[in-house]
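hey team, just a heads up i'm posting the complex here instead of the shared drive bc the drive is being weird again. everything in one block, sequence lines first with there labels, then the predicted structure for the whole assembly after. its two chains so it's a bit long, scroll down
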Amino acid sequence: MIANTPTPPYYAVIFTSIRSSIDAGYADMANRMVELASQQPGFLGAESARDGVGITVSYWQDLASIANWKAHAEHVLAQQFGREQWYQAYKTRIAFVERDYQFVAGE
Amino acid sequence: MIANTPTPPYYAVIFTSIRSSIDAGYADMANRMVELASQQPGFLGAESARDGVGITVSYWQDLASIANWKAHAEHVLAQQFGREQWYQAYKTRIAFVERDYQFVAGE
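-- predicted structure starts here --
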């Protein structure tokens, strides 16, 4: 789904990753993190796709919301597992969304 | 691949899309657009994945580079085809990348 974010400005966290060959526990943890993120203050939506590279973009109200989510105890544990097991490499970019535009067929 | 972008700041264009059922010409045009984008001034890299939703993030030196690419004649034509045929919906977000961090296993 395309995230139904509010009118900018807001923030985006672009998380691009290459998985390792280790699958144990990954899908459950990934689903749990999406669920947990969506419950955090300031969460505005997320989009995710993987084919070869994985791209997850989550949207947040401000930098404080992003910092809170990064420091969430269960998320910290997931990040540690990620580095130890599931990811060969990742890059996280914090970006300030200045504007957007959209297209919907038939509208 | 994870785009090998320079130290921030720079810009990201986050293009999230839902395809229509029309495939004719899409793959060729998508590949051509990646090739053409990478030749534009200010292009810093791109990442792309699709499963259900498609996410393409392209990285640019500044807003002028993004505006130039958006107005490129061949890209304008592709955008028009996209709206008429290939996309059910899309959303484009222009974002200023303020910082990044990365992880590479074994480093």
